[in-house]
Amino acid sequence: MERYHAEHADDRSEFQRDYDRLIFSAAFRRLQNKTQVFPLPTNIFVHNRLTHSLEVASVGRSLGSKIAQKLGLNADEIGSIVAAACLAHDMGNPPFGHSGETAISSFFSEGKGLFLKKLVQNENQWHDLISFEGNANTFRLLTHQFCGRREGGFALTYSTLASIVKYPFPSTALSNKTKFGFFFSEIESYQCIAKELGINYLDKKNNHFARYPLVFLVEAADDICYQIMDIEDAHKLKILSTEDTKALLFNFFDEKQRNRRLEILKMVTDVNEQIAYLRSSVIGKLIDECVQVFVENEKSLLSGNYNNSLINNISAEYAQAYKICSDLSQEKIYRSQEVIDVELSGYKIISTLLEHLTEAVFSPEKKYSQQLLMRIPTQYETSESTVYGKIQAVLDYISGMTDIYALDLYRKITGINIP
Description:
Elements: H1 14-23, H2 26-29, H3 49-71, H4 75-88, H5 98-109, H6 123-130, H7 134-143, H8 158-164, H9 187-197, E1 201-203, E2 208-209, H10 215-236, H11 242-250, H12 255-265, H13 271-296, H14 298-303, H15 316-333, H16 337-362, H17 367-373, H18 387-399, H19 403-413
Antiparallel strand pairs: 1-2
């Protein structure tokens, strides 16, 4: 990974090069056609994974630069590391939002893939499959050497890679946790990064590491963006009224700040612009709050003893406003018919693709399997010698699909569409 960087001689820093490499990659471009929360738009533009990632990167750069300035560090470098990690943080997510992760896990834990349990030799590997996690898949995508590709995957710096891993432990260390940071196949890669960067073990037996300090900024940028931007999208889709949306955003301001913003809103007649102005003001407030939390907890963050998210420790008045947004999002946005419908469809599509593709990989002698295997690009090594490796090749292929590609392949292999 990092050994490639000494070969370059341009004016960009190593971390700026990480950012550029990510933004020009095909994997990043594919995020344009991956669901964020709401179905991909027709006549109303809402966020997809790509626009979400770009906004998270913008907020992450601000967080990194502000904190670096306060701590006397290089603001450009810290900002670039956090921004690059933010760009990449969702690149391993499968199609159709979080329902895609659930569909993959359920296929192995309770679906037609359950028969594979007796074939997977290692219990740790089976844990990866029944707990499939987009965060861990991002780390795999960025570090794994796919067939025909160079060693080190994207060849990113260790600092950027460590900043992406929000949950620095494998699936077997989950216990009461719901997310993990790397698959069994990538444990050695993360161990190498941790050793080079001086990241301490919290539990060496279970490969549970302390979080890298900049991870907290990537997480905070994501927390700020998805919560506030989902509110704006819900307004555009008329799930939330203008009055309700304004009330939610005004909760973040005291009376003096509210009156000032009301005066500015009098000069703006476009309702969407009014909401956009309030949204940007809220994001600015939350950035400042998270910066303050980071600076106040600098020692525990650097020592690996800080074990909470920054957004959970912001000032009480902002925390209350954020909680109101979160509670309403759960009630009216994430359970809305539009969101549930795309999750149901996505679940069915991914389950069907897994069924057909795993059967093809494990029964390559069949005529139908041979035809289907020709659809899988050669970079995905379906001829891997282990059962775990074969399954991972299928998951690499499916998780890299866009919503549109997955739907198209589903229609073709089920005979709904004939080319």
